[in-house]
């Protein structure tokens, strides 16, 4: 019987592969991002998530058109209403991007096709951001359509003004929430847990700050929904940017750091 | 070529893979055989950069897997046929891989053809696939980048006997064109059908390694005759070791040597064959009994 003891490979034959047997470029980043983007829309869960979010934006502005007060009909108010919806739902889009390789074990394929996991991480961030921007665009279109209806039906014709600050602020805020979702997804690598935590933690935080006065002071710096208020209303001044930066570091930076470390080092099974 | 050198993986006290070294060469199909939980999958994950080894290294095409540029074009990997999103269609799974590898849309259809999945089947969601179909899909994905090396974990699992023979043909053809194939299995007969080289591991260690012929022929010759007592004496006199296995004599000699002894002693043989897989099978069964660890991942 031939056994390991008498036939281990102790005399290495030349292992060198013929020169140039492994040639060719790596996977361009564009293709990685494209694949990640496609993975977010090619399953029923992913696709319906997006359709539902878009539909909710339409329903919200329609409801306001029907039951709302004519004096409130401005593009900006429609948009800000939609932003409330997106702030809740965009993190979930991000979470689903962050956890996708681990919830269905597709990481076995993804990380063998691109073993440089850091590139996959960045591709997911880019893809989630693009998708987030697409949904924000839907919200803009829905809001503009609502304003058009308002103008035709109710004569609300001076509501088209949208400050550049507000527009930019809304987009930045919503993108931050997408990134927060991806960060939570990476950190927990489990869709359900990440969604629950990303919903519960800020709520607990808000309640706590309401009860404890010194926390309330800290919240000016650390509560993501509070620090983005001036951003979405177009009133960012001085300290507001510092508040935004510290809060983003807490809610996005820290989970992102933990999450990226986990994705890079975790054994893929 | 795949070169494994002293590959070791420890999880706390558990040594999942223990100092494993072997080479899978171009032109041959290497079977990685062992009971469930022997460490095959862990070793294969280390080869593909998914699991960091505790010690040792694995080189694929002369370098660590993680350093391969666009690895899908060089190494076809299938580690778990079931690790696919159940909501995607088979075609979509391949399409994603094709985009990432940078092979055209035509490669998807060519690959489906190659593994015998029809266009209709490819349009169904993976959730509705049988295990055999998932294996074919995984194989299609592994082959799509036109690689030089295949690393397949339990590819024949879930295939019917016909499917196993089909896979043998496919992998044989791949190896004949100079490709390297490493596949794992927990079924000896499966590996016997498909592989040329065998690496048998148990409890994380290599217990047998060599070509299939070597391993299968190294257990002597089984022989029956009209006068076993005389044959036993004649074989012993000729210097061959002989033992009884039930009603059969097992001689430590080739069938030709046994035949010559019988001819010289004018004994009529009623059966003469190499001991074949019985020895390997016995060893494998012992391994399975001794080392199979219930509940631990293969």
From TrEMBL, chain A:
Region named Disordered: 1-22
Source species of the chain: Nostocoides japonicum T1-X7
Polar residues bias spans: 1-11
Membrane-spanning parts: 47-67, 79-100, 121-148, 160-179, 186-215, 241-264
Keyword RNA-binding among UniProt keywords: no
Name recorded for this polypeptide: Uncharacterized protein
Entry annotated with the keyword Transmembrane helix: yes
Entry keyword set: Membrane, Transmembrane, Transmembrane helix
TrEMBL record, chain B:
Coiled-coil region: none
One Pfam family named in its UniProt record: ABC_tran
Keywords, comma-separated and alphabetical: ATP-binding, Nucleotide-binding, Transport
PROSITE patterns: ABC_TRANSPORTER_1 (PS00211), ABC_TRANSPORTER_2 (PS50893)
Domain ABC transporter: 2-228
Residues of the signal peptide: none
One MF term in the entry's GO annotations: ATP hydrolysis activity
InterPro entries on file: AAA+_ATPase, ABC_transporter-like_ATP-bd, ABC_transporter-like_CS, P-loop_NTPase
Family in the record: Belongs to the ABC transporter superfamily.
Protein name: ABC-type multidrug transport system ATPase component
């Amino acid at each position: 019987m031939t056994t390991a003891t008498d036939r281990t490979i102790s005399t290495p034959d030349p292992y060198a592969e013929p020169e140039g047997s492994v040639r060719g470029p790596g996977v361009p980043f564009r293709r990685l991002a494209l694949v990640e983007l496609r993975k977010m829309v090619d399953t029923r869960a992913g696709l319906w998530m997006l359709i539902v979010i878009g539909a909710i934006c339409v329903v919200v502005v329609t409801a306001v058109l029907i039951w709302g007060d004519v004096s409130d009909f401005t593009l900006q108010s429609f948009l800000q209403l939609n932003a409330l919806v997106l702030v809740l739902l965009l993190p979930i889009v991000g979470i689903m991007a962050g956890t996708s390789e681990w919830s269905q074990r597709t990481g076995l394929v993804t990380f063998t096709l691109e073993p440089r996991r850091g590139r996959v991480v960045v591709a997911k961030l880019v893809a989630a951001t693009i998708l987030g921007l697409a949904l924000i665009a839907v919200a803009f279109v829905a809001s503009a359509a609502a304003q058009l209806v308002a103008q035709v039906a109710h004569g609300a014709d001076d509501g088209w003004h949208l400050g550049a600050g507000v527009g930019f602020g809304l987009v930045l805020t919503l993108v931050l929430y997408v990134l927060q979702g991806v960060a939570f997804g990476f950190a927990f690598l489990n869709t359900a847990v990440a969604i629950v935590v990303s919903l519960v933690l800020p709520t607990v935080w808000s309640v706590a700050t309401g009860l404890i006065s010194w926390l309330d002071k800290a919240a000016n710096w650390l509560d993501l929904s509070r620090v983005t208020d001036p951003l979405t209303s177009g009133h960012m001044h001085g300290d507001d940017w510092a508040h935004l930066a510290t809060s983003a570091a807490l809610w996005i930076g820290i989970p992102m750091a933990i999450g990226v470390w986990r994705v890079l080092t975790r054994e893929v099974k | 070529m795949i070169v494994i050198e002293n590959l070791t993986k420890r999880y706390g006290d558990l040594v999942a893979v223990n100092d494993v070294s072997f080479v899978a060469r171009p032109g041959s199909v290497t079977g990685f055989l062992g009971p469930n939980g022997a460490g095959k999958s862990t070793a294969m994950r280390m080869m593909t950069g998914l699991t960091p080894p505790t010690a040792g290294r694995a080189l694929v095409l002369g370098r660590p897997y993680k350093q391969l540029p666009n690895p899908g074009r060089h190494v076809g990997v299938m580690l778990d046929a079931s690790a696919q999103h159940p909501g995607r269609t088979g075609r979509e799974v391949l399409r994603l891989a094709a985009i990432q590898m940078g092979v055209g849309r035509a490669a998807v259809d060519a690959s489906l053809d190659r593994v015998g999945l029809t266009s209709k089947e490819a349009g169904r969601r993976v959730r509705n696939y049988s295990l055999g179909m998932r294996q074919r899909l995984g194989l299609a994905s592994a082959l799509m980048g036109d690689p030089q090396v295949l690393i397949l974990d339990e590819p024949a699992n879930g295939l019917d006997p016909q499917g196993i023979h089909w896979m043998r043909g496919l992998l044989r053809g791949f190896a004949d064109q100079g490709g390297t194939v490493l596949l794992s299995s927990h079924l000896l007969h499966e590996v016997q059908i498909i592989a040329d080289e065998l690496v048998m591991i148990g409890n994380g260690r290599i217990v047998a390694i060599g070509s299939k012929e070597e391993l299968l022929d190294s257990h002597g010759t089984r022989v029956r005759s009209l006068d076993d007592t005389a044959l036993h004496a004649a074989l012993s006199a000729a210097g061959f070791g002989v033992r009884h296995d039930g009603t059969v004599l097992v001689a430590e000699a080739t069938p030709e040597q046994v035949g010559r002894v019988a001819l010289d002693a004018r004994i009529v043989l009623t059966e003469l064959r190499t001991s074949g897989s019985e020895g390997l099978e016995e060893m494998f069964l012992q391994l399975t009994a001794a080392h199979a660890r219930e509940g631990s991942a293969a």
